[in-house]
Batch of 2 targets.
Target 1
Amino acid sequence: MIQELHEVQQDAGATFELVADATVPVSFGNDAAAIQAARQGVALVDLSHWGLLKISGDDRLRYLHNQSTNDFQRLKPGQGCDTVFVTSTARTIDLATAYVTDDAVLLLVSPHRRQQLIEWLDRYIFPMDQVELKDVSSESATFVLIGPESDALLQQMSDEMLVEDAYASHQPLMLDGFKVRVAVGNGLALPGYTLIVSASNAAKLWQALTAAGAISMGDRIWEQLRIRQGRPVPDRELTEDYNPLEVGLWQTISFDKGCYIGQETIARLNTYKGVKQQLWGVRLQAPVEPGTVVMLGEEKVGKLTSFTQTEQGAFGLAYIRTKAGGKGLKVQVGEVEGEIVDVPFLTHDYPT
């Protein structure tokens, strides 16, 4: 069924590569038009290679509440949130988006962490827990719409619209005759939506969305956008070297909820303002390989984690020691000059 989607995408000019053992459209030969659509129109991205996990059973909310950083006990059907799964010492495993339905929670997880998270979550289910885990990635397709015209496109395709506009709020809608779960937000700090549809209807929905005016965007431009936005991903910004406060994912953390895996470390870092390094954007004068050391004079102050080339020049993400400074700091990244800048997806301030 996903093969049918790929055939539709190939007919539209897609080229494919393997990403996390999945075949992914990396470009539609229209990269400039796709980035322009994300800024001024509506771009359509296939994230079906990401993982979709279904957690059901009467204890599902309590269970997830105890396994990750956000407050699941407050969530009602139709609501959702971003949350971070961390180790017992609060090192990052993955940033996930949760959608609470009437009888389950759907977790959209990074492609590189799908299997690891299933095994991780299964490890913490005890005999008395009424919790069931299922990987439903192959049963569904996930698309995202990016851009200020996303609302207009959905209104064009459906007589219904989302009742709420809070981030990660969601509901099933009929889009051009297909039942689709539509959620506010697209994993970036840009306007748009996440669409989850059955794999059997994926190709038809993709055709309907592009016929309605969405511009297909490949994974290569999605990667450029996520770096410019500051969206962290596993094996780059999310590793066991960093905790969620260093990453800048304050919005995913509840400091009022009870105990959860990694909670003691995160609470201590917050209470004593112990964040020693922070993730920032860095505007670069030339390309630099990820992993390159960031220097301030003769002092090592950080490391570049991601790099992309944009129309505005070279850009990356880097962890910088808090004491070295932040926005506006001039640094040396290998042989290249750089300037530390804000990125919209991340925050750096302790909550008041």
Target 2
Amino acid sequence: MTQRTDIRRGRGEHLRAALRLSADGIPVLPLRVGKVPFGNCPGCAKNVCGGRPTMRTPGPCLCAYPCHGWAAATTDPSVIGSRTWAPAWRSAATLAYHPGGAGVTVVDLDDPAAIQWARETLPATRTVPTTRGEHWIYRGTMHGANGVRPGVDIKSLMAYARWLGPGTGSMAALPDAVRALAVKEPSTPHMPPQGLSVPLGGQRGTCPHRTPTYLDRGIAMAEQRITGATEAVHATVYRTFLAVLSTHGRCGCLTGAHTARLFTAAQAKGESARHCTDAWANALTTLGMSHV
């Protein structure tokens, strides 16, 4: 059997698999080499269609060709097996599906470190091996996001994922811990590192805490809150910073040593130094203290 015959057989299998999946209500589309969708069809070349639907507009593709990325995914066998899609299947390198259209969310774990984080943080669910890691599939949808953590992407609504098989294990409901990964604090300028080495300016004068013990106890409780987080670590760190600043941030007693303790606790949970700095700056802005 020649290599060309092997390739043709593989591409025929993509089409047959697409038809089987569509019968189960899973919207599918072909991908070319590089795991990217096919280019615009002649009627949509150079965006003459106005880009509707586009990669940011929900809904099925309005033309007969698979030209709008995830939005081209369909369960219609007359489209999947049509002559207009035939050239795409003949040159397809792999098969993809629209997770959101199938009612699921894929947590794409790209490396062993990401898989270990998921095992320690997320509820067990159906898993599918990938080339470099695993897909963890949950029942439920959300807006996807890339790079929510090192080696972690979320694919659901308005996204596509490679079809690599049905996976193993029971599918769990989409947990809040995954939803929280896509929640970002308001964008603010990156806080200069030197801002962490001095007390927050705030309102000088008599300290309302009366004793240093009150502040130390507050910092210790904040450390425990971060350390004890079993899910939604991003959101927990931000909310903890917000609570510390709202209570201790205006009297001038909160120093870089206190902040360093909080950052150390957060980084021990897997947060990056950049995320800690941004979360701190965002909390300052939220409280109207960004000038401090």
